[in-house]
Design a protein that fits this description.
InterPro entries: CofD (IPR002882), CofD-like_dom_sf (IPR038136), FbiA/CofD (IPR010115). By secondary structure, the protein is an alpha/beta fold. Helices cover 39% and strands 17% of the residues.
Amino acid sequence: MVAGGVGGARFLRGLTAAVPADEVVAIVNVGDDLTLHGLRICPDLDSITYWLGGVVHPEQQWGRADERSTVSEELRRFGTEAWFTLGDRDLATHLHRTSRLATGAPLSVVTDEIRRAFGVEVRLLPATDDPLETRIRTRDGRDLHFQEYWVRERAEPRVAEVVFAGAAAAEPAPGVVEALLDADAVLLAPSNPVVSVGPVLAVPAVAAALRATTAPVIGVSPVIGGRVVRGMADRLLPTVGAEVSAAGVAAHYGTLLDGWVVDTRDADAVASVSATGVRCVACPTLMDDVEVAAALARTCLELAEEVGR
């Protein structure tokens, strides 16, 4: 499975209710990762870990439950610009990661240590251990790290271009290519197609493995009724020439897809997507509870079995 962010975490929660968790491999976006206050922070890997580990903040849907931000508040005492708030419990994860990386351990090894510490059975693989950074070039001439654009600037600047710096030279993390080639089915989570799934596909050997795998590739639309469920995909899809619609995202993924799942509110897209040769079905996709997410996962797996035949 290729995933990133809250959409990926929520879908994985449903998938692990539908199939044994230890049979699932998630290849996770690292384009959002940043170094702040000397700490290496991996937002998507951590969000997925906290969701599957049952410790995610229930209202925010990211970060730790029962969290405080004492350290971030104290940093402001010293005049530090604390635009990216780090919770006290969350800091322990970043401290462990940073210290392990400093000893030479690759991100994939450290990620495995962290997910095991939280009792997560799903195997989590960063797309790459190499530097890869999502940059947002704005129409007013700035070049921002994705987190600067999303958190500090609140996604307000108009976007001219999205760049995956370092992706062309990046190699897949150990196990990523093998997971794609050996899979029974490859699922693209309803994550942001541009900045969550996009950085994963920007690693050349990952994209090549997706095209080479004999497993059916099934995607889930992150757009419901012409609107994104959360995030800023509606602002970024036009920058890559994609329409903000269920059919538009399917067209963006193009020939990677064998199957596409849309929400029942987008049932009118089924015929147009199917006409492109991609098998398309509609079902409820708003994953407000685990039962809906599990039913969605089962629909994806049944579609994979159908197109695989």
